[in-house]
């Protein structure tokens, strides 16, 4: 079999996308469940292919080219496969994101406008080494009726090939070509050029990688770059609560984008708050870096200008003491990445000022920044987190993989009737009611 | 006064945007009405400045560098100014697009998540010669709480300067710098580079111009490129209705993007439909170009391959006879621009197939493509029409100038409680209710 070109794969995906848009939720969900069943049935085959990838990765680890963390992420065990199939089945069981009537409006008698959710079309995804990412992305794309181009990391190529083949065979009732695997690095550049046929690009990986994608395509990009999140302990804070939130936001899982990187403390409570909090952090081995004002109170290293803008992704935290709520807001606006910020205060007016003054995707009051997550927000499976402001921001669920279409049902109306001197007036009256194409509401 | 740099103007706009986001609908609407009042009061000044632009344009018209149409678009009369202030006041009177609670969800006791509409931030706009565009864009931006960078055409520079100064002075209660005027062509390139500070670019102008912007920035672009719209007359069509719709869709206003460019006719009705329809078109002076099958029925010029993909924007129409609904769909998918398509048929199943098979922003049944418009759709003032599929598509109202923020109100919750072996379960229960930051719903 000769390998198809990236162009012909994307063309196949475009054709499949138009077909897939017509599939019912039952049909899409059944196909997704078939994927889970096939993964269960072919577990040994997957683990054997994965072993080849892991072996090569171990070799490169010894040669100093790979990290232990990368090798660990790559490895598939029977229990990991079970959690993958659980996830796939949970995607199948979610509410249908398609065909939701967002607006039903009577423009005039027998002239009805419907705004309804539809798939985006063809989604290009580029992701890191975890082979489970391929399965998750494919399930989310299928549930939302989108065709998908999958480009995984070369270190997982054997695993990805087997998983893709299983997905392809298991979804034989879905339109042929709805999922496509591309493998070469050069294919990424080809994909990024195809702004006529790919509707959205979703990169998963480091901030630098996502920025590279954004800078090299005119296709809209849904992804997240940095998470420089803040917790601000206000003068009116419940200090015990503040310590718990500050601790959880850093320590509970420091490697993720919604972990706090800078703690801001109002000067009126700094002396009461910092020593006990610093003790808690010390227990967890958090490395602390403070400004001058904080270092007059606690004995920690000095922070540099660079610290304020850094996403550590690790057990490191910078601390600054501010003389007002306004100073805290200025700091967050100057250094933040518009991801997630939290204020701890008992004063609802001050909370309101904080929440309305910040331009971040998620702004919290008396809660840990770590809640900023699709699962915790109740969005079901998470497509990703967006640090952009257009289309979808913050944690993104299946809804982020949809757009809408306007349908108009008439009985011969022409615009001429509604123009000129004797123009008929529009009614423009919204009404409740779902709708399927071809049928009138009444 | 020394002219500020484009960078410092955008920086001012960023600061203003954060302030403006906190303004109430009343405050924003009052500022918009002040713009209308100031335009009324300073009419002579505006017309004098405009006369300078028009004089220069007439000179360039004589030199063959400008078209008569451009000079006409440029000219401001007292009655044109009146329609401008009417439009501005109608924007002020629209429903507030901000602060709408899209989701209110209880994650757990005393842990409530709100998803609420907010402004996008800083919007860069680049528009053609009409000076009324500047006023309309400024009013829409202010109503939706966005700061705006205005770059008009050089041919309207005197008019734009006076109008901008009037807007600036009239909105002295809005945050200083919320609107910024940039004038030089080089400033556009500077704007397109500023993806850290400009959140959205809205170009208005030719398809080629919008494509140029898309290709030269990593800022998200909201605009429309081509409108190659179709009317398909099905075998089951009411042929009188079909003639009226086909006529209206081309003739009522041929220069706009929602006018039909290609008429598709099912072969079973072609002989009954085409001759009478062609006679109607002939009355209006429409130039017709057909494929071989249509030319065996009516005496019209031959269409070339290029015709099928052309947005004429004029009294020109291409015609093709197809042997099936599927052939019509293939043609639209191959040559259309995903703007607006209409089927004329009495068969609701065939209508449903047409509507569900096309990936266009607007798909109509028994109605003219010319209805694809923000005013007719009841969206109020139209920001523009989007041919993209991300964020907003089709006619875009004020809603297209908003995004959303997640607010979480807790009383000290940390993620650690909901993780690990003894993890507490989330409630994830949606409830009705609007909300303002800092207040609990109950």
TrEMBL record, chains A, B:
GO biological process, one term: L-proline biosynthetic process
Coiled coil: none
Keyword Transit peptide: no
Reactions catalysed, as given in the entry: L-glutamate 5-semialdehyde + phosphate + NADP(+) = L-glutamyl 5-phosphate + NADPH + H(+)
Protein's cellular compartments: Cytoplasm
Gene3D superfamilies in UniProt: Aldehyde Dehydrogenase, Chain A, domain 1, Aldehyde Dehydrogenase, Chain A, domain 2
E.C. number(s) listed in UniProt: 1.2.1.41
Keywords linked to the UniProt accession: Amino-acid biosynthesis, Cytoplasm, NADP, Oxidoreductase, Proline biosynthesis
Family stated for the protein in its record: Belongs to the gamma-glutamyl phosphate reductase family.
Protein name, entry field: Gamma-glutamyl phosphate reductase
Species for this entry: Natrarchaeobius halalkaliphilus
Taxonomic lineage from the root: Archaea, Methanobacteriati, Methanobacteriota, Stenosarchaea group, Halobacteria
Gene name, Swiss-Prot/TrEMBL: proA
